[in-house]
Protein: GTP-binding protein
Organism: Paenibacillus hemerocallicola
Amino acid sequence: MRIPALIISGFLGSGKTTLLLRLLEEAAGRGLRPGVLMNELGKLDVDGQILEEHANASVQKLLDGCVCCSKKGELLDALKTLSAQKPDLIVIELTGVANPEEIAETITEPGLLDELYLRQVVTVLDGEHILDYNSIFAADKQLVRTLRRQIEVADRLLLNKTDLIPSAKQLKIEKTIRKYNDRAPIYPTTQSRFDMSPLFADIESATSAIVSTQVPKTPKVAIRGVATVVKQQETKSFSRIQTISLPWPREGGTSRSRVEKCLRAWEDRLLRAKGYLRFEGDDSVYLMQFAGGRTVWERSRYDGEPYVVFIGLDLDAERLTEQWHRIFD
């Protein structure tokens, strides 16, 4: 069974660490053993010290940088270390300037694809200051885009510190939020307190659950007589950011142009797409990466089973799979 990963997102001071502590309390009450990955921009581990004083969990820390940029290379190793300890779930608290979809992409790396899956993204919003961000950070357009993206990709939105704002302002904030995300439920909260049961639905303790000795194998799908690994079916993600892994035959009977055409057809929903691909009549393996409407190809030394991963918002998995298979006809 793959390990579910919960991502906590939100700007600095919104209440993410408070939420993390509440999540760990809830996990303990359910008999679950969590792993935690904390990322801080500074060199001093303030939040990590708070965590260690209040919770009994396996913790990995990435300090003095953001996992979306300077610490991106260390993120993969930290998640591997946590997953090797076989926790019942992993909670990832991002820095206030991190984009959650970057983490979703890392989880699809070959070393983690069979170990973790993204369950949900929870974004915490500072109700007292959120309406001021556009003017405060007007000179930093990238930061403003990141803060909006934290809202757009969230599966649950916590409008925190509602005890510090009047009801009229709360309604205005909720209306603003809906411009960027009209699907995720909004929870007005104080001290990041809300009903967490939906986050933990169907997550069982590996030590207490009665587990069958017959572990389901990863299903196989044949395309033109070649068996390739497809997405595992034993886990379910509840996140709007969906990760769909699809098969690629070792002797792929298609072309780069057909792959790119398929990607462009899903451009409005795709955040990322990547894979290690091999074309018929070519001994090379290529790393394909798609983002922002552009596809980049480069030769790779990857020697595992070829595959491709789509990462997007509210993807129609059945229709995407059907269209993907057509490029091999």
